[in-house]
UniProtKB/TrEMBL annotation:
Subunit field text: Homodimer.
Principal location listed in the UniProt entry: cytoplasm
Annotated protein name in UniProt: Redox-sensing transcriptional repressor Rex
HAMAP family recorded: Rex (MF_01131)
SUPFAM superfamilies registered for this protein in UniProt: NAD(P)-binding Rossmann-fold domains, Winged helix' DNA-binding domain
Record function comment: Modulates transcription in response to changes in cellular NADH/NAD(+) redox state.
InterPro entries: CoA-bd (IPR003781), NAD(P)-bd_dom_sf (IPR036291), Rex_actinobacterial-type (IPR058236), Rex_DNA-bd_C_dom (IPR009718), Tscrpt_rep_Rex (IPR022876), WH-like_DNA-bd_sf (IPR036388), WH_DNA-bd_sf (IPR036390)
Originating organism: Bariatricus massiliensis
Keywords carried by this UniProt record: Cytoplasm, DNA-binding, NAD, Repressor, Transcription, Transcription regulation
Length: 215
């Protein structure tokens, strides 16, 4: 496949395609047209074809898409056919909830370790993974080929910890801390700011209520 720059907008839609195709597979659907897929996803058929053409198309005129094949190929594009070793920094409520999310493994994300600063959590296990203290972090990252660090810690510590991870070979950060990280350009950062999502929800609820207050 010819290398080309794929827009972030297309990349953000790929997991959604993957999820819908997985649901179709669960319901025994073997093939689907871009028009039928667009109705399910609320994305235009033209947009679907344009997105998938970035990776070779996958469809046949008059036939549509083979659901299993397309699901598998998008999984490969997303790297879900490979394993990625991850660790979670912060064993509070959010960190423990993420550690308990067993579906990570089915997507190739292998949880190798959980770290915290609270000595009362030393030795506690979540799904068989022992919570370790931060002084063990540096050696653990190097010895276990950790690719992804998940930050569920206060923002005051996030930058320091992120830099420590990067200095020891971590390639990507999944950042739940309520702060932006200024890291080298070759480090991949995915920010998940839960409060910002709630604010957007609040905005839309407020607009909706204003528009319908006289209903």
């Amino acid at each position: 496949m010819e290398e080309r720059e794929i827009s972030q907008a297309v990349i953000r839609r790929l997991p959604r395609y993957y999820r819908y195709l997985g649901e179709l597979l669960e319901h025994g659907v073997e093939r689907i047209s871009s028009n039928d897929l667009s109705k399910r996803m609320k994305v235009t058929a033209s947009q679907i074809r344009q997105d998938l053409n970035n990776f070779g198309g996958f469809g046949q005129q008059g036939y549509g898409y083979n659901v299993k094949y397309l699901y598998t190929e998008i999984g490969k594009i997303l790297g879900l056919n490979e394993n990625h070793n991850i660790i979670i920094i912060g064993a509070g409520n959010l960190g423990q909830a993420l550690a308990n999310y067993s579906a990570f493994e089915s997507r190739g994300f292998i949880l190798k370790g959980i770290f915290d600063v609270n000595p009362r959590l030393t030795g506690v296990t979540i799904r068989g993974i022992e919570i370790r203290m931060m002084e063990d972090l540096k050696d653990f990252v190097r010895e276990n080929d950790i690719e992804i660090g998940v930050l569920t810690i206060p923002k005051t510590k996030a930058v320091e910890v992120a830099n420590l991870l990067v200095d020891n070979g971590v390639k990507a950060i999944w950042n739940f801390a309520h702060t932006d990280l200024n890291l080298p350009d070759n480090i991949i950062v995915e920010n998940v700011h839960l409060s910002e999502s709630l604010m957007r929800l609040s905005y839309n609820i407020t607009r909706y209520n204003e528009e319908h207050k006289n209903d």
